[in-house]
Design brief:
This protein has 393 residues and is α/β, with parallel strands linked by helices. Helices cover 36% and strands 18% of the residues. It has twelve helices and 15 strands. The strands form three sheets. Strands 4-10-9-8-7-5-6 form a seven-stranded mixed sheet, sandwiched between helices. Strand 7, helix 8 and strand 8 form a beta-alpha-beta unit. Helix 2 packs antiparallel against helix 9 and helix 3 runs parallel beside helix 9. The radius of gyration is 21 Å and the shape is globular. 49% of the residues are buried.
């Protein structure tokens, strides 16, 4: 018999136990089927038990699991090349998680200026509502006090400004500033998207002031917004970018991507990872890209996103006492509620549909990118029943 008391009490877990998944569905131990529009918090980009990922993992598991980074890694080279060929980047460092990818991004930016003879330039400007991970450095970067309290002094070098406030950004720049870090679409922060115009201004400002633009696409990357990466919507490129979640389709893998110039300070011995870039992760990451980069796949994401948008707009009109606004891009969707967001989430679970809470009183819908239009409509129908139940209280 399992004993939950053996675990750290750091999660307020829902009393639900799942034993297997099929595509967009999760099946509980008692056999109940749930429509999974949480997707492991945007991790299960291709749903559960995707046949190409399963076969790839099984095949690699029979060959090699781990060799460390003491030797050359064909799997890393292959996946890095595919990421480079489809992005702005020239260099890639593989990690196990998004927080590790952000740590690498921060170190890359600081080391760049250090190598140029400016060790004083180590401050990073970040934005209110940000979430960049749970390490000592990334909670400081995110700036949310609830994650910082109790863990000693806040790590220095992070200067936070209000969301999309260009004047505040300019005022925050000093001789110590190394770069600007942001999520093109804030996930934990409530599905707030930076405008295309603001992102272009930030890119121009970084060029003007010799700052590095660092993007956190851990949640919004790998097709989630209808482009391979969200920065493409604004027609800009970053200098450094952190990626994770969807790139592994459920297997732990992250990556820090950078231009050759931005990565120029990261020489032998400056950074490392025991498990990062292991053969299992590299095989699965390559398999995810096989699917996401296939002809028509991103168009499918946009087509299904439109079904959600239209359906959610209708629900907003029908239940104005419950739904205040619909946010986000592609299949990264936020429902800002007028009631406590946890009440809507609970009602949705009652209709066997899973979602995720976010800041600013938002419920996140993060369906797998393979979700069909029919499955989207099924989800909308269940969401409608949840809203109806709440409106009759």
């Amino acid at each position: 018999m399992a004993d939950a008391a053996t675990l750290y009490d750091t999660y307020a877990r829902a009393p639900m136990r799942f034993e297997r998944g099929e595509g967009v569905w999760l099946i509980s131990e008692s056999g109940e089927r749930y429509l999974d529009f949480a997707a492991g918090v945007a991790v299960n980009s291709l749903g559960h038990a995707h046949p190409h990922l399963v076969e790839t993992l099984k095949s690699q598991a029979e060959k090699l699991w781990h060799i460390s980074n003491l030797y050359e890694s064909p799997g890393q080279e292959k996946l890095a090349r595919r990421l480079i060929d489809n992005t702005f980047a020239d260099k890639v460092f593989f990690t196990n998680s998004g927080a590790e990818a952000l740590e690498c991004a921060i170190k890359t930016a600081r080391r760049y200026h250090y190598a140029k003879g400016h060790p004083e330039k180590f401050h990073i400007i970040t934005f209110e509502g940000a979430f960049h991970g749970r390490t000592i450095a990334t909670i400081a970067a995110g700036g949310q006090q609830k994650y910082i309290d109790g863990f000693g002094p806040k790590a220095p070098g992070f200067d936070q400004v209000p969301f999309e406030d260009m004047n505040a950004v300019r005022d925050a720049i000093s001789d110590a500033t190394a770069g600007i870090l942001l999520e093109p679409v804030q996930g934990e922060g409530g599905l707030r998207s930076f405008s295309k115009e603001f992102l272009r201004e930030i890119r121009a400002l970084c060029d003007e002031r010799d700052l590095l633009l660092i993007l956190d696409e851990v949640q919004c990357g790998v097709g989630r917004t209808g482009k391979l990466f969200a920065y493409e919507h604004a027609g800009i490129t970053p200098d450094i970018m952190a990626v994770a979640k969807g790139i592994g389709g459920g297997f732990p893998v992250g990556a820090c991507l950078a231009t050759a110039e931005a990565a120029s300070g990261m020489v032998a011995g400056t950074h490392g990872s025991t498990y990062g870039g292991n053969p299992l992760a590299m095989a699965v990451g390559a398999a995810v890209l096989d699917v996401v980069l296939a002809d028509g796949f991103l168009q499918h994401v946009n087509d299904v996103a439109l079904v959600f948008r239209q359906g959610l707009a209708s629900l907003k009109d029908r239940f104005p006492e419950i739904i205040e606004d619909i946010r986000g891009t592609g299949l990264m969707i936020g429902i800002k509620t007028k009631i406590p967001n946890a009440e809507l989430l609970t009602a949705m679970r009652g209709e066997k549909i899973l979602a995720v809470l976010a800041g600013d009183n938002v419920v996140r819908l993060l369906p797998p990118l393979i979700t069909t239009a029919e499955e989207a409509r099924e989800g909308l129908a269940r969401l409608e029943k949840a809203a109806e139940a709440l409106s009759k209280r």
